[in-house]
Amino acid sequence: MAPPLEHGEHTSGPTRRSLLAGVAALGALGAAGCSRVATASTKDGGDLLERLRAAGVVRLGIAGEIPFGYIDKDGELTGEAPELAKVIFKRLGVDRVQPVPTEFGSLIPGLNSQQFDVVAAGMYVNPERCEQVIFADPDYQMLDAFIVRKGNPKGLNSYQDVVEKKAKFATGTGYAEIQYAVEAGYKESDILIVPDQVAGLNAVEAGRVDVFAGTALTTREVVKKSDKAESTEPFKPIVGGKPHVDGGAFAFRPTETKLRDAFNVELRKVKESGELLRILKPFGFTEAEMTELTAKELCGG
């Protein structure tokens, strides 16, 4: 979820986009049976990459969120981040990836307590998280979009439209879209909070709300089989008076700059070759989600 998203004072919803920045208790970790990795050296950027090469396996923290990182119906690890991890880590000399499922809010605590080696959950990069982990450059960017009735009868294409036209507005539990709407002038207590985009689609189809806000990817996927609703064109929410774009990336412990830097080198290669889009496309990503954003930009400089 996707992931600044889903946020601070609002809720602890277990989504990729939460601005909670991973402060949930470690007791929520779903990593029973997994031994901890050895503590990394903090000297000269850490030695985790060398240790992973020697072990031949890297542990990926995932949050069970489609399409970002999850275990499929056949019990196999997949999602945009794990599939990208398989490619990049193989190029780095690490042949296998091993999933360590946990709740989203436990990803950062789990990473920093050595429960796994890297967060591979499509986590949004934001300044709060950048104080706790280091990020690779984003492998995707994400704009917002609305689910509206067919034909978009109220002409809702931005949060400002929602406010000006006094539309009935819904979004998901913990979504950053709550704050985006509030920043545009919508009264928070008037927002209908539903569990996810499926519930949002149902609310629009039933006429309980005029609009549901989510990411461009999730909204366009969920309306594909609807004959009553459609997704609007993606747009940038206004944050702090400026158009804002979110970006999702892999997260590493702050001491492991060598691994992060090596990961970024290979990430640039798959971006430049077009392989990144081919990897992510099966999960609903399009050319519009490809990005040249950097972690430095999203961390605030």
Automatic annotation (TrEMBL):
Keywords: Signal. The keyword Translocase does not apply. It comes from the Bacteria. GO terms for molecular function: ectoine binding. GO terms for biological process: ectoine transmembrane transport. Residues 57-287 form the Solute-binding protein family 3/N-terminal domain. This is Ectoine/hydroxyectoine ABC transporter substrate-binding protein EhuB. It comes from Streptomyces cupreus. The lineage of its organism: Bacteria, Bacillati, Actinomycetota, Actinomycetes, Kitasatosporales. The gene is ehuB.
